[in-house]
Design brief:
Keywords: Membrane, Transmembrane, Transmembrane helix
Radius of gyration: 18 Å
Number of domains: 1
Helix content: over 70%
Distance between the termini: 23 Å
Strand content: under 5%
Number of strands: 0
Order of helices and strands: HHHHH
Length: 144
């Protein structure tokens, strides 16, 4: 169980980095130029995209990724490709749908779907690496 939690945290970190990093290219220079604010405020504001990305990635990993693992495992369809297709799809749909619902503008949501796709794919890739390792160990134990 501890290994699963550690690998879930690693997958969320990968997804957070992939989904939030593109926004840091914008926020860090913008808030760096606002030197009249305190250093803590500037750092917090500059790295806020990582906080938002992390919360979304964590919620999606728990609400979608873990049930998907159970479904794929039960169907015998666990593979990096299947995880990454699902990660890319949900990674695109979640921010696109959320922003379309909150802002009412579909085009903005589609734009945010791009880093969401990166986040979902990175999270799924990292999780699938661990799942592949677990499967290979399970196969080795069953053959003994």
């Amino acid at each position: 169980m501890r290994d699963a939690i550690r690998n879930l945290a690693a997958a969320v970190l990968w997804g957070t980095s992939a989904g939030g990093a593109p926004f840091l290219l914008i926020t860090i220079p913008v808030f760096w130029s606002g030197l009249e604010h305190s250093g803590v405020e500037m750092i917090w504001a500059a790295f806020l995209p990582l906080v938002y990305a992390g919360l979304l990635v964590l919620a999606a990993a728990i609400a979608i990724g873990l049930p998907l693992t159970a479904l794929l495992g039960e169907a015998g369809m666990e593979s990096p490709v299947n995880y990454m297709i699902a990660g890319a799809l949900f990674g695109f749909l979640i921010p696109a749908t959320l922003l379309a619902a909150l802002v009412g503008e579909g085009a903005v949501g589609l734009l945010f779907g791009i880093p969401g796709t990166l986040a979902g794919t990175a999270t799924a890739f990292r999780w699938s690496m661990w799942r592949t390792k677990v499967q290979s160990q399970d196969c080795g134990l069953e053959s003994e």
